[in-house]
């Protein structure tokens, strides 16, 4: 009985590794898409905030340009980005639940 289970595991392991590798490659493409979308969103928000009065006021006070960009513009531009990222977190948990249900069902059916 033990040899039969060991043989079945040796046959199943390469298949599982190939499936995990395929899922990993698919996730990489989705991650790059999400990063690109967030980068575009951050850029649009920063371009929207650059001409506002508080930025002009900081520049007129003689604050360094790098400090103005990081402290004033980027900080206020990230508020909607954080909201957008927070709205995507439930999708990660939903995907994990679906994946767990799929692999749990196959494991119990094969034994």
Core attributes:
single chain, 111 residues, mainly alpha
Give a brief outline of the structure.
With 111 residues, the chain is mostly helical. Helix 1 (2-49) packs antiparallel against helix 3 (65-110) and helix 2 crosses helix 3. The protein has one domain (2-110).
Give a verbal description of the structure.
- The chain is an all-alpha fold and 111 residues long.
- The protein has one domain (2-110).
- The protein contains three helices and no strands.
- It has helices at 2-49, 53-60, 65-110.
- Helix 1 (2-49) packs antiparallel against helix 3 and helix 2 (53-60) crosses helix 3 (65-110).
- The model has no long low-confidence stretch (mean pLDDT 76).
Instruction: List SSEs in N-to-C order.
Output: HHH
Total number of helices: 3
Strand content: under 5%
Average residue pLDDT: 76
Low-pLDDT stretches: none
Helix content percent band: over 70%
The domain tally reads 1
